[in-house]
Amino acid sequence: MKVLYIGCYREGTGWGQAAIDYILSMDAAGINVVPRAVKLNERQIELPKRILELEAQDSSGCDVCIQHVLPHLMEYSPKVKNIALYATETSNFSSSSWPRKINCMDEAWVINEQMVRASEDSGVTIPIHVVPHATNFSKFESSHKKLSLTDANNFTFYFIGDLNRRKNIEAFVQAFHSEFHKNEPVSILIKTNKHGLNPDQCAKEVRNICNIVKSGLKIYVDVNDYKEDLIITDYISEEDIYSIHSSCDCFVMPSYGEAWCIPAFDAMGFGKTPICTDVGGMRDFIEHAVVDPKTLQRSWTRGGILVSGRLEPVSGMTETFQDIFTAREDWVSINIKELQHTMRQVYEWHKESNPEYSSMKQKGLLQAFEYSHQKIGTKIKELLNG
Length: 386
Known about the structure:
Layout: E1 2-7, H1 14-28, E2 32-37, H2 49-55, E3 64-68, E4 81-85, H3 98-103, E5 107-110, H4 113-121, E6 128-130, H5 138-141, E7 155-160, H6 169-179, E8 186-191, H7 199-217, E9 229-232, H8 238-247, E10 250-253, H9 262-269, E11 275-277, H10 280-286, E12 287-291, E13 298-302, E14 305-307, E15 309-313, E16 330-334, H11 336-352, H12 355-368, H13 373-385
Parallel strand pairs: 1-2, 1-3, 3-4, 4-5, 5-6, 7-8, 7-10, 8-9, 10-11, 11-14
Antiparallel strand pairs: 12-13, 15-16
Helix pairs in contact: 1-13, 6-7, 6-11, 9-12
């Protein structure tokens, strides 16, 4: 079998990294995969050598075409088996052109279990299978340099993600400054960037968001009296991102919706106790089903903590295509009070050297191994041969 894989693996984004890992997963499982890139931005990145080797192959004679692109860009070919691989972060996409385009394909692959329901509710009628993101877990076993980002004695809550409405950075800032007194040995760090803004412009926008939140809290008269928000907006290497994980203590992702969330997954693998909204892919990898081989009883183990929320109509996503992320869709608004309590709990566990906290860190690392290139590649191979 020969597979043509079309995706945005040259983007330098989370979506691009997911594409790289899917290609390497298929290669690790012995699938003859030929990648072809769709370029949607101007960034230039250094690809793994193996991707370049696979890319140099002739694409003729492929039996399967996996199209890991936005559904409205998908095209059916009668010469191959056509697979739609896509991500969504809301309750449905029924008001868009996506269901019609997806239903022209032979099969749909989605990132998490919640997406199966969202696709069915949107009118997708072709077979749907869950193919989670994969990762090279050797990064969790390697040592990474520590950065002097905060006082070494401080416990640091941190966020890594794009600057957009869906990520809900405001909830993180509100929960942190509402819960922790400025004299407590805790810090908040935000690593973000935004397409179209240079690092200084992005830092200014983030600072403005933080100040608006703090002004609204009215705990102190002057926003400068609050604990300082540490902000990083430079485009940095993956190794530097790993260093941020290694240097901080507890990852927080209060997003309204996530198909997967690579930074939250990596935080779990690094033992950084991710605290995330109970939604999407984060629900799948943070709480992991374990089946006892003798009794076949299922139990759940946690590599982090999920915080509940409530469904709300999508709003504020004005920089996306017109027919997606509209108020005809719902997403999950995190319970900020519960987020506060959870951040406090993790901080207290850290101070007390709580054994449950240590166990959660270890479970996170073990769960990360379930998403190796080899294991996800084997799952893909089974689906292709099924």
